[in-house]
Each structure stands twice: as C-alpha cells, then as structure tokens.
Amino acid sequence: MSALSLNNSTLSSFPTSISVPRYNRQSLKAGIVHVGVGGFHRSHQAFYTDNYINHTGNLGWGICGIGLREADRAIKQSLEAQDYLYSLLVKHPSGKTDVQIIGCLTDFLLAPDDPEAVISKMAAEETQIVSLTITEGGYNYDPSTGEFDFSNPDIQHDLANPNKPKLIFGYLAAALDRRRKSGQKPFTIQSCDNVQHNGDVIRKMLVTYISSYDSGLADWVASQVSFPNAMVDRITPATTDKDIALAEQLGVIDSWPVTCEPFHQWVIEDKFCQQRPAWEKVGAQIVNDVTPYETMKIRLLNASHTVMGILGSLRGYQTIEQTISNPLFATVVSSFMDNEVTPILDEVPGIDLSDYKRTLIARFANPNIKDSLARICSQSASKVSTFLVPTLVKNLKIGGNTAIANLVIAAWCLYSDTHSSQQGQPLEVIDDLAETLQQAAHASRISPLAFLEQPSIFGSIIEDESFCNEYKYYISKLYAGVAIEQILEVVLSSYKAKYYQAKKV
C-alpha cells in the first residue's frame, strides 16, 4: 500500500498498523490553548491529551496552538496543510517504530499576524487551560537572582503596547484582564517546560510583570489563577529529513512528523482553578507536590544531557547515542549521577533511584533515537544555569563532589571560544548569549577565570577558591590541547581513589 497524505479525508484509509484518532475531530472544542507547539509538546502533552480523548470520548479538550514568533510560521503552515494532524513516530531500541496520528490540535494562531486573535482565544470562556512550552529562556528571569528582567527590550515594548505584545507575559496579562472584567473565572496556567518549580516560576514572573502597571490585576492573578508545577519527560529529537522519509516508508506523508522514545512521564500537581482532563487515566501522575520528581529529573536526566552534550561535542561526536556508546563517557555519566547528583537528592516517593538511573542509561543508548548534541547544546547558557549549577552550588556548600560539573563548565568555555571540536570540526552554537559567551571564553586565554565572571549563569561560584583552582587546571589542559578523554580519565581516577580511601576508613 502506498503512503497516504495526512488530512481529515484520509484518516479512515490508513491501515490498522497505524493508530488514528477514534473520535470526531469536527466536534472538538479547544479547552486548552498551548503556546509553543514544538516537537516536545507534540510528543508529550498533545500525546497524553489525544490518548485521553480516545480513551474517554471527551471532546472538550482539543488544543489550539499558538506561535509567538515569526519562526513559528513554518510549523503553522505545515499543520494547516494537514488539517492540524501529524504523525508521532515512537522508536524502540529493537528497531521497531510505532506510528500514531495525533488529532487533538484544532487550530494554530500566529501572534505576529494577529495579536488580538491570540488574546481573544485565551480569554474565550471555553479556554480552561493555557499551557506553555516556551523553553527555559522564555521565562525572562535572571538565573543569578531569580528576578524578572525588566531590561529586556521586548518587555519594554510590551509594557508600552499592551494590545500588541511580543512575549507571553503581555498575552497572558491581557487575556486574564478580560476574564476578570467580564466576571469570568480565570484559566489555569500550566507550564510544561523543564524548569524547576515551573508553575511557581511563571506565577512569580507574571505577577511581577503585571504589578509594574496594575496592582489590582496582579492581586487578582495572584489569588485566583492556578499555576500547577509539573515534571515532564520524553526524549524528543529534532525532526530530520530521514524522519520524514521514515514516516512515508511507514505509510504517512507528513511534512513535519515527530520522533520520540517509548518512555514518557508526566507528574502534575493537582492545583487547577478550572476543569482539566483526567490525564491520570492515560498514565500521568497527579500528586500533591511535584518537587522531588522534578528535582530528580532535572538534575539526573537534563544535567546528564548537558554533560554528554558539551563533552561529547568536544570529542567530535554528533549524537547522545554515539557519545554514551563510548564506555569512558558512559562511565563518566554514571559517575556524575552517582557521585555528584544522587547524594544531594531527597527521597522520591515510589521511585528507586538505582533503577531510574539504569533506565536513563538505557534510554540514552537507544540506537534509534539520534538525538543530536547540537540540539542538546542549544541555549546552553539557560540549561547550564538551570540544570547543572544548582547541583554544583549545593555540593560546594556541603563539601560534595564537583569534579565532573567543573570540567563540563571548563569544556563549555573552550566550546564557546573556538566553536569547534578538538578535532577541528565546526560546532553550531545556538544561544541568545552566544556573543557574550564567546567574548568571556576568549578572555580566558589570558585570565583563566574570565568565563566564570557571569553571575547570571554561575552565581557566585567564582568565590570558591577550591573550585576555581580545579577549574584553572582544566582550563590549562584544555587550552593546551590535551584530549578530553585524558582529562576524563584523571577525573575518574580521582573518584576511584576517594572510593578506596573511604573503604579503608
């Protein structure tokens, strides 16, 4: 059977090997408005929601997508041409790929084209939840202080142009103001980003933003709007031409399929001011406090991704799977999790950390998930400050192990300076702070600690003399051209020495 184009008229013609929506899409109502319809949203929240609608037949939980940037036009056009359908390719380690066509998206609005349409959609009575995947950088806070960044030119624009905002805060504020003035209940604001206490963060940033011009609205939002914290997890590589070809080979002509691993996890605090889908019926965990789950995930999975991304890129590797297949790098990642992260984690209800870490290594090693290191390393300034530095700071306070985290930062300095691997291969640098990072890194050639003099990323770790001495050692070796593998061997040897010394004691 030849591949079929993806649209409403073809859904009934796909073979039974391809899962399709079993509900009437024409009757869907968009109870959810989602900002940031990237690959992760489509493999995670939309996947859960589609499964929920299939499972219950509840048609009130369609999702209207929102793109805030001109760069979102491409995904809008792709989805529009396919009646907002897309295929999810779930790649198993065995080589098997499951295909599920997701149908819960109902529309896609591009904010630069019509800001009023976006505000109106959020403010509409049927909207119960406005959810977000806007990346770590979208929350507009200074990582060193945790405070809202009013110096951002886009924030200044939005304050001056409340009906034509550019960033999420202006849209949420305008829509919530309309709900308040019309006497309606507010919608829940649900973050689905890899930001620790993501609900608390968006609450603080939004209330701070609104407080600068309307204390009454700010008080209403603070007291009436719910911001449930959540932990999200599913490895979702960027879509490649090979993925598009694979979808067609499997029977679906899709201009923008999404690929992902089989594993998925979503832990959500049950704190909603409006109704919500019963996502727990399709595998989500609803809890009172998500803190231990999100801390575990961010500091083990996301931080390990950063470790592999930066170190593997310097070695010349292209993907996570390629990096972890090197026994030395696999040992480094395991050592990082065991020696630097696990000792500072609280107990996680229902989770065996040893099993969780073994599962992570197996997920990283999935040969069919070609998760690129370039994707992992994109926006590293935000990721390092969010995923790696908090663990590092806590270890410095208690005298814990920091050697691998220290080396990762030194390696990131070289990466930011040269934009190339140690083998001379060019490295793509995608970071809002790319120029600032390169300038600070280049200064390290003369002043070895210059890269650490960025409090918005590293806080005050430059004040720790022991950390800085070790960091200067790594910088000297890296800039002298010593292979990253040799330095990693030294780090692992130091951990082995500590282990045997501890046994003697």
Describe this protein's structure.
With 505 residues, the chain is an alpha/beta fold. It is built from 20 helices and 16 strands. It has helices at 39-43, 45-56, 73-81, 115-123, 153-160, 168-181, 198-211, 215-224, 241-249, 291-315, 320-324, 327-341, 353-364, 373-377, 380-398, 403-418, 434-443, 455-458, 465-479, 484-504; strands at 4-5, 18-19, 32-35, 63-67, 86-91, 97-102, 105-110, 129-132, 141-142, 147-148, 188-191, 230-233, 252-253, 258-260, 265-269, 285-287. A 5-stranded parallel β-sheet has the order 7-4-3-8-11, sandwiched between helices. It has a 4-stranded mixed β-sheet with strand order 2-6-5-14. Strand 9 (141-142) and strand 10 form a beta hairpin. Helix 7 (198-211) packs antiparallel against helix 8 (215-224). The longest helix is centred in the middle third of the chain and has 25 residues, at 291-315. The model has no long low-confidence stretch (mean pLDDT 95).
Secondary-structure blueprint of this entry?
Blueprint: E1 4-5, E2 18-19, E3 32-35, H1 39-43, H2 45-56, E4 63-67, H3 73-81, E5 86-91, E6 97-102, E7 105-110, H4 115-123, E8 129-132, E9 141-142, E10 147-148, H5 153-160, H6 168-181, E11 188-191, H7 198-211, H8 215-224, E12 230-233, H9 241-249, E13 252-253, E14 258-260, E15 265-269, E16 285-287, H10 291-315, H11 320-324, H12 327-341, H13 353-364, H14 373-377, H15 380-398, H16 403-418, H17 434-443, H18 455-458, H19 465-479, H20 484-504
Parallel strand pairs: 1-13, 2-6, 3-4, 3-8, 4-7, 5-14, 8-11, 15-16
Antiparallel strand pairs: 5-6, 9-10, 12-15
Helix pairs in contact: 4-6, 6-7, 7-8, 10-12, 10-15, 10-16, 12-20, 16-17, 16-19
